[in-house]
Amino acid sequence: MEAIISTIKDVFLKSTCVQIIAVSILLSFVWPTFKYYAKLTAILLMSFLVLVIPIPLFLFKPRWPLNALIPGIVACEIIRWFGVQYEIRGKEHINVNNGGVALINHQSAIDIVLLSRLLREFRNIVPVVKKELFYALPFGIASYLVGVVFIDRKNTSSAKDVMKREAVAIQRDNLKLAIFPEGTRHGKDTLLPFKKGSFHVAIDSQSVIQPIIVSKYAFLDHKKKRFGRGRVIVKILPEISTKGMTKDNINSLVEKCQTTMQKEFDALSAEVKQYCHL
């Protein structure tokens, strides 16, 4: 026993990495704010690495969404180590032969892992994100190679041109564009007003809109700097066809989607509280 204790002591004293891990674990127990930053940083950093490391492999088939499949599986396993699990409902509503627009409520930077989890179900889903992320090298290059669509929110004309091209891709490649219609992330109980860009794309391509509701991250409180353990319930709703719709239908379509998603968000968020602990 003394020999074992001595060996452990020697490893601890000689390994800076082990010392850092041990101190981090100790600080996590006594300082919740440190735990918040440590978990958030670790999840984002590891998600960054699992996407960047395989870049050479992505070059064999650039802009292919399934390039991100294996990195996504790894990212989901990593976040599970940190106490977050995903439950996917409504898989029967997924039609991989349909291109369209997937609307997802936006809560946190760790939504990047959620998108990875959805790729395992849809296989043809690609995120639409702000152009600034492209310049976060080499993450931006990796994202481009897995099919992520970048838009310049500050340049309306440019953003419209990109979305018009993607409307064609929806029809040609049966892609589903994953768009956060609120435009920015937040942790509120009420969804922010939906922007109309995603609805224009759906109508321009005469494709479908598929609402995807993510329960509130009850285990995560950015304001109080708390990051606990919990479950995320993701509900995939039936597709909404836009066949025959024109731009005159946009306001009513936006209202319908916002009302439906808010109702589901309220129900899922109430349910998920029992599984989450800060």
SSE ordering: HHHHHEEHEHEHEHEEEEEH
Low-confidence parts = 17-30
Q: How far do the termini sit from each other?
A: 38 Å
Mean pLDDT: 87
The tally of beta strands, per DSSP, is 10
Q: How many helical stretches?
A: 10
Fraction of residues in β-strands: 15-25%
Q: What is the C-alpha radius of gyration, as a whole number of Å?
A: 21 Å
Principal-axes shape call: globular
Based on secondary structure, the structural category is alpha/beta
The description of the largest β-sheet is: 8 strands, mixed
Percent in helix: 40-55%
Summarize the structure.
48% of the residues lie in helices and 16% in strands. The protein has 278 residues and is an alpha/beta fold.
Question: SSE layout and pairings?
Answer:
Elements: H1 2-14, H2 16-30, H3 32-52, H4 55-58, H5 69-81, E1 84-89, E2 100-104, H6 111-122, E3 125-130, H7 139-145, E4 149-151, H8 156-173, E5 176-179, H9 197-204, E6 208-214, E7 220-221, E8 226-227, E9 230-236, E10 240-241, H10 250-272
Parallel strand pairs: 1-9, 2-5, 2-6, 3-4, 3-5
Antiparallel strand pairs: 6-9, 6-10, 7-8
Helix pairs in contact: 2-3, 3-5, 3-7, 5-6, 8-9
Folded structure, characterized:
With 278 residues, the chain is of the alpha/beta class. 48% of the residues lie in helices and 16% in strands. It contains ten helices and ten strands. Strands 1, 2, 3, 4, 5, 6, 9 and 10 form an eight-stranded mixed beta sheet that branches. The chain has a two-stranded antiparallel ribbon with strand order 7-8. Strand 3 (125-130), helix 7 and strand 4 form a beta-alpha-beta unit. Helix 2 crosses helix 3 and helix 3 (32-52) packs antiparallel against helix 5 (69-81). It is globular. The two termini are 38 Å apart. 33% of the residues are buried. Mean pLDDT is 87; it is low at 17-30.
